[in-house]
Specification:
The chain is mainly α and about 350 residues long. It contains 17 helices and no strands. Helix 4 runs antiparallel to helix 5. The radius of gyration is 22 Å and the shape is flat. The protein starts with 5 loop residues before the first helix and ends in an 8-residue tail after the last helix. The mean pLDDT is about 90.
C-alpha cells in the first residue's frame, strides 16, 4: 500500500474537495526562491501563514495605528485587529465558495505588513521625503520578500505574494482567493471604522444615512452579514468575486460618508501633522547619520542605498517606537547628579 505524508493527503483532498477554480497547493507556482524541501505535515500555503504569523513585522502590527492615532482606550482597532478581522471575513467567504481557506488566510494576514506608523499619515510623510509615492501594499511585499529574517525574506509562494501586493491598487490578484481578500479588506475597515467612530463620540449609530442602512442594516453585525452573504451569493451566481450592484453602491456610499464624517474629522486626524513631522525628522536624521541605523540594516546600505534603507527602517516602526526614538533624538532628557 502506498504511503502518503500528511501534506500529500491534504493536497489530494484539495484536488477533490475544492471548487475547480480554487487555488490548489499542489499546483502552486512555487516560492520566490525555489528548491526548499516540502513539509511532511503542512501544505505550502499553510507554511506561508505560519511564516507570516511568526514574523517580526506581524507582531509590530499590534502597535500600529488603524484610524485613530495612538488612541487612549483598549478597544480601538489597531493594524493587528484589523488584519485578524480581514482574515476571518475572507475565510468565511472562501469557505462558502469552496475556495482555498489556507491561501486566503495567508494573504489576509500578510496584507498590511508594510504599513507605516501613524496609518496613512505615515504614508504621506514618507511619500513627501522620498519624492515618490509610498504604497503600503508594495512595502508589504517588500517586507516578506526582502526585509524579514535579516534580509532573507520569508520566501513565500507566488500566490500569497501576489495576494498581498494586490489587496489594493491597480493590480488585481490572479487567484479568486486574493480577490476575496481585496474585498474583505474594504468590508472590514468600513464597518469597524464606524464602530470606532461611535466609541470615540464623533458619530452616532443613527447618523448613518437611512438609505444606506436600509440596504446594509443598522448594526455592525447586520452590515457584515449582509456584505459577506451577498458576496457569496453573487459569486455563486456569476462566478466572479463581487456584490450585487445595489449592495456595492450602498457600501461605496457608506465609504464616502465615512470620509466626510470620520476620516477627515479633526478628532481622528487632528494630530496627523505632528505625526508627519516626527517621521520626516527621523528620516532626515538617519539620512545624515546612517551609522546610527540598527546593525541589521547596515548591510542594506551597500546594495540599496541610504534613502531606501532609511525608508524601510522608519516604515517598520510602531507608533510608540517612532515617538520614543524621536524623543530620544530631539527632546532634552532629564538628568540627575551621579
Amino acid at each position: 500500500m502506498e504511503e502518503w505524508t500528511i501534506r500529500e493527503r491534504l493536497e489530494r483532498e484539495e484536488l477533490t474537495r475544492l471548487a475547480p477554480d480554487a487555488a490548489k497547493a499542489a499546483q502552486s507556482r512555487g516560492r520566490l526562491r525555489p528548491g526548499e524541501p516540502e513539509s511532511d505535515v503542512r501544505t505550502c500555503f499553510q507554511r506561508d501563514t505560519d511564516r507570516i504569523v511568526h514574523s517580526k513585522a506581524f507582531r509590530r502590527l499590534m502597535h500600529k495605528t488603524q484610524v485613530f492615532l495612538r488612541p487612549e482606550g483598549d478597544h480601538y482597532r489597531t493594524r493587528m485587529t484589523h488584519t485578524l478581522e480581514v482574515a476571518r471575513i475572507a475565510r468565511t467567504i472562501a469557505r462558502g465558495l469552496w475556495l482555498n481557506e489556507d491561501l486566503t488566510e495567508a494573504q489576509a494576514l500578510g496584507h498590511d505588513l508594510g504599513h507605516t506608523p501613524f496609518g496613512h499619515a505615515g504614508e504621506v510623510a514618507l511619500s513627501e521625503v522620498m519624492g515618490a509615492p509610498f504604497r503600503h501594499n508594495e512595502q508589504s511585499l517588500r517586507v516578506v520578500d526582502r526585509l524579514e529574517k535579516n534580509g532573507e525574506g520569508l520566501n513565500l509562494t507566488y500566490e500569497t505574494r501576489m495576494g498581498i501586493l494586490g489587496h489594493t491598487g491597480d493590480r488585481i490578484p490572479e487567484t479568486l482567493e486574493g480577490q476575496i481578500v481585496r474585498l474583505s479588506d474594504r468590508i472590514a475597515y468600513i464597518n469597524h471604522d464606524i464602530d470606532d467612530a461611535v466609541r470615540a463620540g464623533i458619530l452616532a449609530p443613527e447618523e448613518v444615512p437611512r438609505d444606506i442602512a436600509a440596504v446594509l442594516g443598522d448594526t455592525h453585525r447586520d452590515r457584515i452579514n449582509t456584505l459577506v452573504e451577498n458576496v457569496i451569493l453573487t459569486a455563486r451566481e456569476t462566478g466572479t468575486i463581487a456584490m450585487e450592484p445595489r449592495v456595492w453602491e450602498a457600501m461605496d456610499r457608506l465609504r464616502t460618508f465615512l470620509f466626510r464624517r470620520v476620516y477627515r474629522n479633526p478628532v481622528a486626524k487632528g494630530e496627523e501633522s505632528k505625526a508627519r513631522d516626527i517621521l520626516q525628522q527621523l528620516y532626515r536624521y538617519y539620512m545624515e547619520h546612517p551609522d546610527r541605523l540598527p546593525a541589521d540594516f547596515l548591510p542594506q546600505l551597500d546594495f540599496e542605498g541610504i534613502s531606501r534603507t532609511v525608508c524601510d527602517y522608519i516604515a517598520g516602526m510602531t507608533d510608540n517606537f517612532a515617538v520614543h526614538t524621536f524623543s530620544q533624538l530631539f527632546i532634552p532628557q532629564g538628568w540627575q547628579l551621579r
